[in-house]
Amino acid sequence: MEKLGVGVIGCGMISGNHFHALEKLENVSLRAVCDVDEEKLQKAAEAQGADGYVHWRELICRDDIDAVHICVPHYLHAEMSIFALRAGKHVLCEKPMGVSLGEARAMEAAALESGKTLTVCFQNRYNGASRRMKELIGSGALGQVLGGSAFVTWNRAEPYYQNSPWRGKWETEGGSVLINQAVHTLDLLRYLAGEMTLRGCTMSAKRLADTIETEDTCDMLLTNSAGGRFLFYASNCGANNLPVQMHLLLEKGELHLDGARLTIKGPEGTAFEDYTTALAVGKDYWGSGHGPFIQDFYRRIQAGQPPFITPADALETTRLLEEAYTYPMSIRRRPT
Ligand SMILES: NC(=O)c1ccc[n+]([C@@H]2O[C@H](COP(=O)([O-])OP(=O)(O)OC[C@H]3O[C@@H](n4cnc5c(N)ncnc54)[C@H](O)[C@@H]3O)[C@@H](O)[C@H]2O)c1
Question: Which of 23, 135, 225, 243 is deepest in the core (most CB within 10 A)?
Answer without folding.
Answer: 243
